[in-house]
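Hi all, long-time lurker, first post. I run a small reading group and we've been trying to get comfortable going from sequence to structure in the token notation. Rather than ask abstract questions, I figured I'd post a concrete chain and ask someone more experienced to write out its structure so we can walk through it together at our next meeting. Sequence below, copied exactly:
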Amino acid sequence: MKHSKKMMVRAGLAAAVLFSLSGVFSGSAEAAEKIYDGISRWGATEATEGDPITVNELNGWGSSETHPVHLTVGTKDTQNVTVHNYSAGEGSTAEVHGRNISFGGEYGDKQIGGFWVDTGTITIGDEDTKNISLTEMRGQKGAQITINGGSESLNLGKINVGQTIIRAGGANTGKVTVDSIGLWGNYHDDD
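-- Answer (accepted) --
Happy to help. Here is the structure in token form:
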């Protein structure tokens, strides 16, 4: 069967249009996984590209009330976010967004507890967040921890705090699990 050049060009164009409509060449492919070794005031202050997103160290130290640091991980549209280790002090504000968020787990050759907040502020999740899981949550000296969402599950792990404000859940929060709670009294540097 003999084909003319004109027919072959039309067939090629039709195939290109079909591939384009199917998303193969349209740029609609999902974002690739991105691993951030560290997010802090001394380098990148946000980790918002990629899906899933993994942050090995989210470090809010080195800030103060007069020189605050704001750290951001994920977006409302990010499907999976993992933060292996988080710590922060005075003047630090962190936001972690995503549909499924976890803190802790294995990092390198050690098991990481989750996070430590010392006078800092962290907000985890949004109204669209489905699952939040923390291995351990530690805070002191006026730390403020807000956990939103968890429409399917909210696992707070081990809570070990003193002088800390924790707000967890909301109207659309599903099953809430706490492994253990440890509370201690006031902590003062000058005592």
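A couple of things your group might point at:
The longest helix spans residues 5-22.
Helices lie at 5-22.
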